Fold these 3 entries.
Entry 1:
Amino acid sequence: MHEILEVVLVGRIIKSDTCVAEGVAYLGKLDPRFASAYARTGKLPLRLKKDGFEPLLSAIVSQQVSVAAANAIWARLKKAKLAGPRKIMWATDDELRDAGLSWQKVRYARALAESRIDFKALRDAPTPQVIKRLTEVSGVGAWTAEIYAMFSLGRADVFAPGDLALQEGARVLFDLDTRPTGKQLRLMAEAWSPWRSVAARLLWAYYHVAKDREGIR
C-alpha cells in the first residue's frame, strides 16, 4: 500500500534509457512532430545525476550563463574543493569569486549552504512539495528547482518552461510565429504529461541539432 501511495504522489521515476524510450514512444504517438524531432536527434541522453547539495549548487552555477561558461566555473569550483556546504561556509567571498562565482551567486551559494535542506526526504516528496521547498532558498528559482527534480530526482513529469532553449526549440519544432513565453509553454506542456521530462530532453536535443547550440549542461 505504501509503495502504491508513493507512486501516486511522486509519479513515474526515470531510471534508465528504457524509461526515456518509453516516453519518446508516447510523445511520438501523441504528436508526429515529436517523432520527426526524434528522427533528427537520435537517442536522447539519460542525464540522471545524483541528488543532494552538489547538483543543486551546480544548477545555480548554470543560471543565466552559457553551457561552456557553466562548465568552466564548475570545474574551477571543484578544483578549489568548493562544492560542499561546509566548504562554502568556510570560504571567503574572494575565494568564491576567484573560482568564478559572481557576487550574486556567492550570496546564493551561501544561502544554499545555510538552508539545511533534507535532500533524502525530497526523494519521496510530491514534486510540488519539492519545488516549494527548494524555492524557499534565495537564488533557487523555479527553473533551478525543476531542473533538480528532473535530473537529480528523475521525475518523469516535470518541465522547465522558463528555459530559453526549450522555448526556442518549441518555437522551431511547432512552427510558432514567436518564441512562447514561460506561461505559454507551461500550458503547451500540459498536453505532454505524464512524460514532460522526456519532452524537455527531446526539445533540448532538437534545439541542439536545429540551432547547433547546446541546450543544457
Note: The chain has two domains: 13-44+158-211, 53-152.
Entry 2:
Amino acid sequence: MGYPTIYPTGATVYDPDKCWNGYTVFQANQVGATIIDMNGNVVRQIQKMHGFPNKLLPGGILMGNRGRRNGKYGYQDQKDLIQVDWEGNITWKFDQWEYTEDPGEDAGWMALQHHDYQREGNPVGYYVPGMEPQTDSGNTMILVHKYTSNPNITDKKLCDDVFLEVDWEGNITWEWICSEHFSEFNFSEESKNTLYRNPNLRAQVSGGVADWMHINSMSLVGPNKWYDAGDQRFHPDNIIWDSRIANIMAITDKKTGKVVWQIGPDYDTSPELIKMGWIIGMHHAHIIPKGLPGEGNILVFDNGGWAGYGAPNPGAPRGMHYAQRDCSRVLEIDPITLDVVWKYTPEEAGFTPLADNYKFYSGYISAAQRLPNGNTLITEGADGRLFEVTPQHELVWEYISPYFNTQYDTNMVYRSYRYPYDYIPQLDKPKETAIPKLDRTKFRVPGVTEAPPQNVIELEIGDAYESAAQLCIVSDDDE
C-alpha cells in the first residue's frame, strides 16, 4: 500500500463525547501485553506476556501466553495460555495438550494454542454488559493445533485446527478436530484438487506442514434472538469460527460436531452471496452478543488480500490464493438473510472510490468489536492502526502503535479490545483530553518552518476546471 515513511504514533484523534471511553488492550510488538487509556498513555504493560490475543478480565486480570515453540517444529504454536493478576502472579495456566520432545529443545507439555480462546461467562472475549468472564472458576474454550494426516485432504502432514474445552483444573472435557469434517465444507472438485497439491504448505517447519484451514477466530454463539425464535443452529453453546485460508465462516454444533451454518468458500453460488461480494482472508468473525447494538448479526473483518483454493487464474496460476482484493471491509451481516446491514469500507472511510481503495487495507490479522454505544472499534492490524468509528462512519478515535519489530519495519497489531474503566479498579479513572484532528495541509515536523509559495500564477480558464482527482475518479460503471 502507499505509505509514508514518517508519521505520528500514539493517539492522534480523540473525541471524548462521541467515543465509548475505556481502556484498550493489545499486543505491543515484541514487548508484551499493553493497556492504554484513550489518550494513548500506557497504564499497564506485562512484558514477555504475548497476545494471541491479549484479553482483560474484571479485576485488572490479563490473559495471554508465554513463549512460542521453536518454528522448526511447529507453526505459530504457543507454549501455554495463562491468566495473570494485577501483581503479576499467574493464577491459571493451561499447557496439557501435547507432550513435545523437539530435537535440541527441553521436553515438556505445551498448549499449542493459537489465535483465540474464550473464558466461560462471556462468548466473545470483549466487554458485553452482564456477561463477565469468570476469573476464579469456569471452563475455557481454546483453539489449538494438532499435527496429523488425512489422505482425503492431502498427502502432506496437516497442521490441523482443534477446539478444546478445558475445565479450571486443565482437564479436557470436549474437542472438535477440523480435518474430521472435511466433507462438510462444500469444497468444489477444483478446490479439492488445488488443496491436495498445495494445502498452504509451511516449508519452514521441519518436513513441511499443511496449514490447510488456518482458523483464526473461534467464539461461542452466545444468547441470541435467532435461538430464542426457535432456530437451533444458533444454540448459545455452538461455536462460530472462520478459516482465513479457505474463506469459510461456519457454526459448529456443540453436541453433534456437525457444521450447521456456513458461507464460503465460494461467494458466487447464490444471489445473496453475489450481492454481499467475496469475503477473502477474513478475521474475527463472531456473533454480536445480546445487549449490544446489532445483536445477533455477524461482525467480521473482511481482509481482502489473498486466500482460497480454486481454479487457476492469472493472479493465481496454480489455484492457490485464487481470490484476491487489495482493500479491506468490515461487515455486519444478518446470518439469516445474508444482507449486509452495516459496513465500513474504503468508501465509508472517505477515499476515492476504487482508485484509492488500498488506503484501507490490512491483508492479514485485524479485528472489529461492537461497542455498547453502537460504535465499532477496528483493528487495522497490518499497519498497527486502532480506531473507533460511529454508526455514521465518523472517525472519533485513532491510535497508531509506536511498537515496531526490530527485524522488520512493522508495528502490526493482531487484535485489540476495549474494556470499561471499572475492569481495573486498581487505577483511578484517567483524565480524558480531546485530540482534535490535525490539518494535514499545515502539519509540519516541529521546528521546521516553511516559506510561503512564490511566483504563483493563476490561469484564467473559466468554470470548466476539474482537479486531477476529479478526472481520475473511477466508478463501478466505468468500463
Note: The radius of gyration is 23 Å.
Entry 3:
Amino acid sequence: METTPTGPAAAAPLLQVQGVTLAFGGVKALTGVGFDVLPGSITAVIGPNGAGKTSLFNTISGFYRPGQGTIRFRGQDITRIPAPQRAKLGLGRSFQNIALFRGMTVLDNIKLGRHAHLKTNVLDALFYLGRARREEAELRRDIEERIIDFLEIDHIRHAPVSALPYGLQKRVEMARALAMQPQILMLDEPVAGMNREETEDMARFILDVREEWGVTVLMVEHDMGMVMDLSDHVVVLNFGQVIAQGTPATVQANPEVIRAYLGAGDVGDLRAKLRASSHPATPQGAA
C-alpha cells in the first residue's frame, strides 16, 4: 500500500510525478509512476538494478519525454519543457557516471553550473563589458565563498579534474549542481564507488545542504544504510513501477520490498543487509 510523504499538512508538494510512463520501443522502462516531493525533504528512490531509477531521473530532469503522465514543479506542468529550462527553473542534478569536463579546472567546472542563470549578452561577453564583469565577480564570490567552502574543496580549486581521485570528483559534481542554485538537488547515486569515509562525508554534505541552505534533495542511491539514515520519504521501484513508498521504517517492513531485494519475505534478512550496508567491513563499490 502506498503512503504519502510525511510533513506539515499545509505544505504543497514542490515536485509531483503523476502517472509517468516511459517506453523505449516495445520495452516499458516506467509504468504509471507517481509520487510527491515535499519542500525541505530528502526523498530517496531505490530499487534493484534495472528497476528504472535513472530513467525516472532522466524523465524528471527533461532528458527523456514520457509517453504518458505529468511532471509538475511548484505547481507548473514542466512535462514538455526542455532540460535547460528545467535547470533554470530550479532543478539541478548530478549524474551516475561523472559528467565533468576533465581537462578543465575544478573552479571552471563549477562555474559552468551557473550558465543557465547568466544574463550577459554576446556583445557584453565578447568585449568583457560592465555587465559581464559584474556577473563574473558575483559568480566567483558566490562559488568561492559559499560552495567551495561548504564542500571543503578550496585546496583543489585550481586543479584539473582529471588529476583528482574519484571521491573528490563526485564532490566537484555536487558543487556544480549547487552552482545552478537549485530548489531541488537531484543526486544520481552520490556515493557509488566511494569508500566508507567518503560516503560519510557525502552524507554529511547532503544533510547540511538541506539544513543550512534549505535545498530539497531527491536522490537515487544503492547504499541502503545511507538511504534509511538520511531520508524522510522513500520510493521503491521494481520493473519500472512503484511497489511501495513511505517512511524508511514503513518501507523496510513492506513484504514486496523485501521480495524485490531478497526474493524472500524475511524482514530479518533485510534488516541484517541494512546493518551491513551501514557498517561495511571493506570499502563500498557501486551496487
Note: The longest helix spans residues 130-150.
